[in-house]
Amino acid sequence: MIHVHGYLGELSQATRDLAATAALVVGGRRHLAELGVEPERQVVLGALTPALERIGAADPNDDVLVVASGDPGFHGIVRRIRLAGHEVTVSPAVSSVAAAFAAVALPWDDALVVSAHGKPLDAAIAAARWHRKVAVLTSADGGVRELAVALPARTFVLAERLGEPDERVRVLTAEQASALDDVAEPNVVLVLDGVPDDPGLIAAEAPRDRAPGAEPVVGHLVGSPAACRRADEIDAALGVASRRYDGPAAHLLPLAWRECDLIVSHLALGATTRLVAPLLRSKVTDPGVVVVDEAGRFAVPLVGGHAGGANDLARRIGEGIGATPVLTTATDALNLPALDTLGWAYSGDVAGVTRALIDGRPVLVEKTSGWPLPPLPENVSSDADDPVARIVVTDLAEAPASALPTVTLHPKSLVVGMGCNRGTDIAVIRQLLTDTLSEHGLALESVAAITTIDVKAGEIGFLKLVKDLGVPLIDYPADELAGQEVPTPSALVEGHVGTPSVSEASVLAHGAELIVPKQRNTDATCAIGRLPARGRLSVVGLGPGSRDLLTQRAQTALRQATFIVGYGPYVKQIRDLARPGTRIYASKMGTEEARTAAAIEAARAGENVALVCGGDPAIYAMASPVLEQGTEGIDVEIVPGVTASLAVSAILGAPLGHDHVTLSLSDLHTDWNNIEKRLHAAADGDFVVALYNPRSRTRTRHLPRALEILGAQRGPDTPIAVVQQACRSRQKVLMSTLAEFKPEWVDMNSLVVVGSSTTKYVTTGGGELRMVTPRDYAWMPKENA
Ligand code: SAH
User: Fold this and answer.
1) Which atom of ligand 1 is nearest to the CA of 726?
2) Separation of 751 CA from ligand 1 center, angstroms?
3) What digits encode the pLDDT tens for the residues 383-402?
4) How far lies 507's CA from each of 451, 485, 529, 632, in Å?
5) Cβ proximity of 363 and 357 under 8 Å
6) Whether residue 66 sits in one domain with residue 170
7) Boundaries of each Cobalamin synthesis G N-terminal domain copy (predicted)?
8) For site-directed labelling of 372, which of 142, 287, 327, 780 has its Cα 20 to 30 A away?
9) Atom 13 of ligand 1 has which residue's CA nearest to it?
């Protein structure tokens, strides 16, 4: 068995007794001599590794005594013996650290102990920078002088040869300590923030508390030069003077936790989490912690998102260094649109305005044009009382002056008509453009297009300009331009290109209102028009019902909508995707006309409208009535969806594998005679038939009649299937034959698929029945076809 005995000053009787009988005694030369250990039982301690080899080689039944100076727990030997897998007993003693603190009568339950035995002093220096009371176990090649140079504002207690007759304890300023030339080994150094009589040092470290309104204390936990640079960058961006915790994170994070209101950890998220976990107390008092990755790409609030201020800090870091804040708290998944991601140019105090937006404080919207904004929460409006921030939508270069934090958004609303002599340099063209814009206070960012005459479409100066601006060059033929009524026609121009105006006429041809008539310099002309604000109407297909069959495009349209309108159950299906502030109008069955009218009206008023339909919006749905009702003055987009027949086809197998038709059995909008005519045609053509709106509570006669018509030309074994609530939680599938089929299986939420003469059932490898209409491939075995 191995026994490690500590000692300070005096060897105990127990140590002496064991030394007399042990097979091996390990210790310093002087103590081995004092214990009277014969050379063959001695292992002289200097380096640990050879000593460990001797210890390891000893018979486990023999006693081995290791004499360690101070407390063995402050000595690498116990660690090394245990890690080597040996059993060990430890007899404690007064450690040099305890003795040093005792020498200056300082309690040390609040101290930090850092060993610099065989290690560089960096960790100790870093710890002492932020901790008021640090004991450093020095080593021969790094000691008090180095500490004093690095920590010029600290007081040093140098305790040398503790327990020895020549023990000495000195209290020194940094200046004195750095100039020492008589340091004796071994020694321990206490690095103190003040003299040992300082009451603040005697009192226990107070828990973190801060006067309300005081600037929060920010600390960076760094561990590499790169992290230090990043911390500098963050501080500069935030305009704060932070604290640095540079060194062993396991020591320093708890320190930072006590001293800071906000901690930026430059360690990995996992490492930070492990260190933070044991410190967590309450989200009200814990500091906020933000982890910034090595590359500075992400700022992740780990704890204290709200009360701790970590979300806010992550956002500010994001803006400061171009990192993405990864916010996971509920209000930040709030789904609020980011002002800088609308696709419009922006300028101003994005952070300030976003803050107000998120905090639910009143934000004023000022629009100089009716360009639709994305949905904004209730606190944002054009008549906000006592606003704390402002969003200005304008194509003017400057927002009207205001003391409020402001974000200016520039919609693409300007059209610039231009003409020029052949070969005019881009610089000349650009100069005219920027001069004209700035003379009229207009924003370059709002330019949506450059327009001109077709003969100038290849003009190199124009091509370069539109490339630089990132806008299209749109050209019109001379005769179309000649037809425009313009304020500044020119006979000279007409003589050259066949129209009296290029710049003004092309602006008008593009549908814009002329706001700046023709301006010119030596070689170019320029006129500016403003496009009328256009609302937008998206007719959005939601698919059969399950979220994974809702297309990405549909989701985008829903998120951008300020107004969502549709039949109640469809609206319910996607309600969660609507952003806060989106108006929602869920209408009843049979109010299609009112629904369409409401959607168009809102779009005309400048809103982003989503009119939602189940399945595809053009299949027995709202796209046709919308387009028919007239969409003057608005932009219309049809967003396709997975229609019921496709969803049902996939569930059944491949019934639509060859020519097929869809028919609606609803005679609400179609004369029944017409429907019958088409049923006959489908029967004649031997088409697979998908029957939409097959049967309602009141329309029970139609389905049997339809099957009668189709059955007249198809055998009784013809497959027929019904799928109710396809892709919804209550999905139900019934596969049958014309002979056995019961119309009662069908309701309004069903789609009926009647096979053609070639449609058949097959069994899958999993033993399931599937409906298949063969494609008549020549290579398929005939008996199966
Ligand atoms: N625009 C829709 C069709 C609207 S007509 C689309 O493209 O799917 C309404 C009819 O569609 C219903 O009576 C039913 O026959 C069919 N239908 C729509 N969704 C369905 C679903 N999930 N399961 C089964 N049938 C559905």
Assistant:
1) 23
2) 7
3) 888 999 999 999 999 888 89
4) 6, 11, 6, 20
5) yes
6) no
7) 255-332
8) 327
9) 693
